[in-house]
Write the structure tokens for this entry.
Amino acid sequence: MASEIPFQRIRLNLRKYILEPAKRRREVKLSDMKEFFSDLEAAERMLSSGKDPVIYQYCEYEASEEPDNLILGLTVIYPGKVGKEYFMTRGHFHEKDSGEIYYCIYGSGIILIQSKDGQTAYMELKQGDLCYVPPGWGHRTINTGRKRFVFLFVYPSGSGHDYGIIKEKGFAKLVIEEKGKWKVVDNPRYLG
Ligand code: F6R
Ligand code: ZN
């Protein structure tokens, strides 16, 4: 009977920054997400010079796909920039408006959220900080540091991910580096 209970220890391997076990792992390279960066020309210059860096990777553990379960995951965003824009996740809305918890375990970065009518908000997350992403808000994380930006996340099974709206319209704000510091600016190409 015990083997049927989805009751499992999940180890956070802090050397490799992965969960063990993890049921899904994903690596996102520049070539997988170049259209999500505001400076597409800079992205294409990197790729045509033979550079296709891993921008981030994440893994997820889902005990069961039954409703009312939770997914636990870990994301590592590497340090770097495409043009002035820091390495970041693609960003998405949940198909089912569900909330999400983020917990930064290493490094530092920004979490940027956006409502469907284009309102935005952001906060800096450093090691030990948690934040709650409210249901219905799109979200993206950005590595503004010189180290990896690593965070755990928890959200409901079956939430689904809508990347299309972000790929098509972008976020209303960009997080760029200016004079060596991060700055949140309006996205001139936002099609909100
Ligand atoms: C899950 C979630 C995060 C992201 C991960 C990768 O709902 O918000 O775990 O999935 O950080 O970012 P995306 O999915 O935007 O490429
Ligand atoms: Zn999410």
